[in-house]
Design goal:
alpha+beta; Cytidine Deaminase, domain 2; five-stranded mixed β-sheet; about 20% strand; elongated
Length: about 170
């Protein structure tokens, strides 16, 4: 290719491949009322989602996106699994957190068996989410497992995982 051909190509490049121009937005599907303005404990956090898990017959992972003062801004069902497992990717969790301008997130999932004790997979997923959040500047405040009735298990409270973030307003 000589210099004239290169100049012509630079002035008027040939279209070789089409690329999409996109716009990413958050769409509000619905809203719900909750009791506390600020979520500063695992008890308040669990109360926020209990009603969403009432009739769940399989594992469902929900993320709650919070601002810097631990005020919930949005929630999303991230994954729906089977009776005893739910595959979750940090990519899916943090996609909506970023779009919501979240500073913090709390992860929830249920155990349809009713036993809210975390499995080794629950602990492993929590660690992966904490690590991913650190890279993105979004703190994972807790991972709460919902059992039957009002039973729940806070992985942060139990000390099963080291949460590097020391939020001033959550679990003081």
């Amino acid at each position: 290719m000589n210099e004239n051909q290169l100049k012509e190509l630079m002035d008027k490049p040939e279209a070789r491949k089409r690329i999409s121009i996109i716009k990413t937005t958050v769409v509000k599907e619905r809203s719900m009322l909750y009791g506390a303005r600020q979520i500063n404990s695992s008890h308040l956090a669990a109360g926020l989602v209990n009603e969403l898990y009432e009739n769940a017959d399989r594992e469902i992972l929900i993320a709650c996106f919070l601002d810097s003062k631990c005020n919930p801004m949005a929630m999303e069902i991230i994954a729906i699994g089977s009776i005893d497992t739910c595959i979750v990717s940090p990519r899916e969790v943090f996609k909506s957190a970023i779009l919501s301008n979240a500073k913090n997130i709390i992860i929830f999932h249920n155990h349809p068996s009713g036993d809210s004790m975390p499995s080794s997979e629950d602990i492993s997923v929590t660690k992966r989410l904490i690590d991913a959040g650190e890279l993105l500047g979004i703190s994972v405040l807790d991972h709460i497992i919902i059992g039957f009735g009002n039973s729940y298990h806070s992985i942060r409270e139990a000390g099963a995982v080291s949460f590097d973030s020391k939020p001033q307003l959550y679990m003081k």
